[in-house]
Design goal:
It is a single-pass type II membrane protein. Cell division protein that may be involved in stabilizing or promoting the assembly of the division complex. Belongs to the FtsQ/DivIB family. DivIB subfamily. The protein is of the alpha/beta class. 37% of the residues lie in helices and 25% in strands. Strands 6-5-4-7-8-9-10-11-12 form a nine-stranded mixed β-sheet. A three-stranded mixed β-sheet has the order 1-3-2, with helices on one face. It is elongated and about 100 Å long. It starts with a helix and ends with a helix.
């Protein structure tokens, strides 16, 4: 009798366990479907880059407006790593998924400049690290007369933060202290002007240069050491208009 009762209990438990397992499996499948949403596609792809064409980045990422949503969700880090591996000019990439929109932010490798030390040339990257090269390639300024690598690194990090057009206009940066300014920089511009600046404020004040240069009737000096004004080569008379604008800047 006990054996028969045990068999009945087992028969009763097995269907119950089967239904519980089946229900758990269904819930799992439904959860996966809701998570991946196979019917959903990417609507927009926003790519932030400087020199590398956006269509090339899109090709590296293999993402477009018809890409299934499930291919992106949970895979953003992998996609970012894949993008970096595709191009030596890419320093890092970040891929974010917001709703049906994909944002791809690219940080490109920027040459911060070149410096000659001990009859050898070194290329400087955005972090201020040095790497030996044969000769400068002409795609970044040459640094001269700097006494310490610390100052070179500081200047390099400020340089890479500038707008591309401004970076491309800087040909040479010379450390040239005098009695009035122990951290004076002389900056040779490709457009024919010369800039006087200070190491500590270079990254901020050099951004005034395009506006000042646009108002200069002839080529000359743009002095950004203690103010922001200009004057023609061969004169010492500062441009009155720029002096006034500098005074207003100081009051802000």
């Amino acid at each position: 009798m006990h054996v028969l009762k045990d068999k009945k209990i087992l028969k009763t438990k097995r269907p119950r366990q089967l239904w519980i397992s089946l229900a758990a499996f269904v819930v799992f499948i439904v959860g996966i479907v809701l998570l991946l949403q196979p019917w959903r596609t990417i609507k927009t792809v926003n790519i932030n880059t400087m020199m590398i064409p956006t269509d090339k980045i899109a090709t590296y990422a293999n993402i477009n407006q018809k890409t299934p949503y499930w291919r992106i969700v949970g895979q953003t880090k992998f996609i970012a790593q894949h993008i970096v591996r595709q191009d030596d000019q890419i320093d890092s990439a970040q891929v974010t998924l917001q709703g049906n929109n994909v944002n791809i932010d690219i940080v490109e490798k920027v040459t911060a400049g070149y410096v000659e030390q001990g009859h050898n040339w070194y290329i400087i990257n955005r972090e201020g690290m040095f790497k030996k090269v044969q000769t400068p390639e002409g795609n970044a300024p040459v640094y001269a007369n700097f006494k310490t690598n610390k100052d070179v690194k500081k200047l390099a990090k400020a340089f890479v933060s500038l707008e591309l057009t401004l970076r491309q206009n800087i040909s040479q940066i010379i450390f040239s202290p005098n009695k009035d300014n122990a951290n004076r920089l002389i900056i040779i511009m490709n457009d024919g002007n010369t800039v006087y600046a200070t190491l500590d404020t270079f990254g901020k004040k050099i951004n005034y240069y395009p506006g000042i240069a646009a108002q200069m009737p002839v080529k000359g000096i743009v002095d950004l050491q203690f103010g922001a004004y200009s004057y023609a080569y061969g004169t010492s008379q500062a441009n009155t208009t720029n002096k006034k604008s500098d005074h207003k800047d100081k009051q802000k």
